[in-house]
Fold:
Amino acid sequence: MSALPQSWVASANTGVTDFPLQNLPYGVFSTQAQPTPRVGVAIGDQVLDLAALEAAGVLKAGDVPVFAQASINAFVALGSAAWRATRARLTSLLAADGDASLRENAALKAQALVPLAQATLHLPVDVPGYTDFYSSKEHATNVGSMFRDPANALLPNWLEIPIGYNGRASSVVVSGTPLHRPNGQIKLPDQARPIFDACRKLDFELETGFIVGRDTALGESLSVEDAEAAIFGMVVLNDWSARDLQQWEYVPLGPFNAKTFGTSISPWVVTMQALEPFRVAGPQQTPEPLSYLQQQGKHAFNIELEVLLQAEGDAEPTSICRTNFRHMYWSMAQQFAHHTVSGCNVRVGDLMGSGTISGPTPDSFGSLLELTWNGKNPITLASGAKRTFIEDGDTVVMAGWCQGDGYRVGFGEVSGKILPAKAR
Structure:
């Protein structure tokens, strides 16, 4: 077995960092000394300023500069050939035995390498549109069993099409952004009419999201093969959910205010090239999907996922869920292809949520709704505090990573603290 490629950035070689040479995820950052947001990649405990490299002539992705911007969209729009070439160039610049243009240029290195601890991370993508799917069979079965007939937990269409709904791109926020508990209508079981109040059953949903890498025209549809090739990368996503608002409003058209108040994503977009070594087979699909959704080969990814919950005042968070993206019934390519089959056009930067990622065991359920079975079985945190749903002051932290041989490709964290509802 050949030795694992190393970086001259020593912190990238620890074996436990989320950001080794094999990852190189894209994000947007600023610093106190230079407050203008620009594009960077994470390497070990540093951010590599791609705008600085571009200005110095060491890195060129396209015919015009694309990295001195507040989102990665302009770079993503260059297409897959530019993605691959830029990744190869960055790998060479950062490899211990690679191109010395950066490594041996002390002035450029001092300018372009910024400690992560000194960087402010921003929303990495300008999100024109956001769609959330419902593609975990385990999650859909749990919810169907809870609120309908356990013997017929899945609705007839669930095994035929990737179910989804169009969410609000305007309320997608980067990790670390606090959110207020939403207000809305709640229908209590002992009252004839709904009341207006703050959400009483606030929840998280552990998801991933993929970033669309190309525009399509109105009326155009993508095959599953073309759809997969058009995915730029992935983030970890928290689809915050107000369960009591949702239960009252979701019939007949699905979630609305129960989901629109906030969706949190990780600040780093991990590219599909970095994830390629972790490609695995997904679950067997029965019945066989219709022809436009059929796939051959491996289209799932072995991504470990974890949720931690920290009550205000607790010294440490408590791990409450561990699951894996490989459990998802519908693949990202199938979701994407189905999204376009009607002729719906997509745009560079569109965000597509996976839906809650639940596994086959109770400790792998990706929401408090499932973990506590709608509040019937409270969970106990390390401090002794009990939770059925999220309380004011609670912070939810999600993390995702792929474990390689001697290295890991990680997404960093997506965290969010819940503040009290605003008075009305």
About this structure: The chain is about 20% helix and 25% strand. The first strand starts at residue 26 and ends at 30. The mean pLDDT is 97.
